[in-house]
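chain below, 670 aa
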Amino acid sequence: MISNTGPDFLHLQPQVALAKLAPMLAEHRASLKTLLAQPNCTYASLIPPLEALSNALHQLWSPINHLHSVINDPSWREAFTEAELLLSDYHSELSQHKELADAFNAIKNSDTFSSLKPVEKRIIDLNIRDFTLSGVNLPEDKKQAYADIQRRLCELATQFENHVLDATYAWQYKVNSVDELDGMPAHSIAAAKQQNEEAWILTLDFPCYHAVMTYANDRALRESMYQAYMTRASEQGPHDSQYDNSQVMVDIINERAKLAHLLGFADYNTLSIATKMVGHVQEVTDFLENLVKKAKPKAQKELEALSAFAHDKLGLTCLEPWDIAYASEKLQQALYAFDNEQIRQYFPEDKVLAGLFTSIENLFDIRVVPCHDMTVWHPDVKTFQLLDKQDKCIAKCYLDLYARPQKRGGAWMDDCQSRYRLTDGSLQLPIAYLTTNFTPPQPGESAYFTHDEVNTLFHEMGHGLQHMLTQMESLSISGINEVEWDAVELPSQFFENFCWTHEGLIACSEHKETKQPLPQTLREQLIAAKKFQTGMQLMRQLQFALFDWRLHQLKTPMTINMINDLWYETHQQVAVVPYKSYQRLPHQFSHIFAGGYAAGYYSYKWAEVLACDAFAAFVEPGADLKIQGQRFRDTVLALGGSKPAAEVYRAFRGRDATIDALLAQEDLLV
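prediction:
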């Protein structure tokens, strides 16, 4: 029986964990050979043992992978790099294992296939598809080429991510007088002072960068921070030769093109959508370009209004990129009579978590309570368990909220372990890693969040709920496994909505001094402000999505000039904010160069269509929150990859999603 308490983080050491990997892979290769030696493989004789091997390997790899993200010191970086290469070789070998593929095809073509359960048939079909996409039918020399490309892509992705992280922490700006930080929140100034008793040290950590760009009255300081941030990991940055991602990006795109061509696809986009909801390449292009046409006029009007305000009220005759966040904050204060730092006073960590958990209970009849049998990798990390109506534990999670050195930026949910019925009959509970990079509290004080951070927390918990509330017991389709990538953002974007309702805002808020929840006037102003500059925000997302989509259609061999030119051309077509020639945002675009969103960044907007349409079911006249919540839990959250995402959505909504709810949310309905 497996432990449901998670990894032993108190005693986990990089080289000790790594030392177990090679022997385990050798054992798995031997076990696979024994499995395939049996005559007439059946579903029952093949799939459960294979899933047991996969689960054991994930138990070992999961903490190595996670700690590389949250404690990226040299020892964990080295362990991760070695482990990733070993795993890349193993997975390439497995995905091109002709005998194993033949065993799946034999089950598919056997007389017993028709008697299998629908979910078992789907597991067989998905594996056959994946074998084909992994080149199992290629000649031997091309199989080796496939394995070489996959190994190289793993190396390059790790190098890209390390460059971004190292470049972020290599840059510092020393401030000798607090007057230079005029306008910034007190907690941000205190955080900078913490690092050096003689001066204030600003870094490119996002909480620090965001505070400067949004609040600092010193325009020259904002410009310095902007240029440093926008040139990270590029030839334009202060550490150009050491952390420049230019060649890494070129190599990644070229290798992906080789991979697609090797498998018989016209380009990497076509390969990408073979496992997505979307039907064909042109459908994505049309979707994104249609949104650009609808949103750009609104974005232009928003920028014009911002420029006029900045000119008239702030004395900024020419609005520069480093003025956008600053002027926008001032304009939002003028329009809605509040500022984000005022709102922050209402969102202490404990109350936000209580409100988050209340939303989960109200929607899904699940209680979230502290868990005391799990170890953690940092004192800031909290652990929780999810209890059903009988107070039975059904899942657990880690919550790592705060930015710190050697921790990867951004926010994400990852799989510690999945819900899975073991071969001995015991049930492995799902455990999730939920990670964000919020501004840490000062020593001895509580943390207070901006509402943007509250929104991020709800977003990541939405991902976590799909992982933790799955009812699937086959590892292959449990949680987010085999959920199409352009549908995987549905639960996260859907769940965000509940921190914007009056009920959600009341549940999450308690003023620092009065202990009262956010008053109605501020709630209404905050909700109204949700549509503030939605056009400009949408255009930024569409710029990234179109750049990604077009990048993976360019002819190779690629050059860095081609990448930079494409970014500029996309910016000119899509964006409305000013452009600076030194800007190198693609060099930091980890989602597509080091993450799972290559030729798939469009998924955020694609899934948002589903999320907006789903939330509409909860606010339609006569809608019952409990009934709709149970239906959402029983379909979107429970079914994992057991059915195509379109079928799962229809099971929840009774129809396909329409774009109308998204257009209404973005204020684009005409």
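The chain has a mean pLDDT of 95. The domain at 349-477+490-521 is CATH 1.10.1370.40 (Neurolysin; domain 3).
thats it, cya
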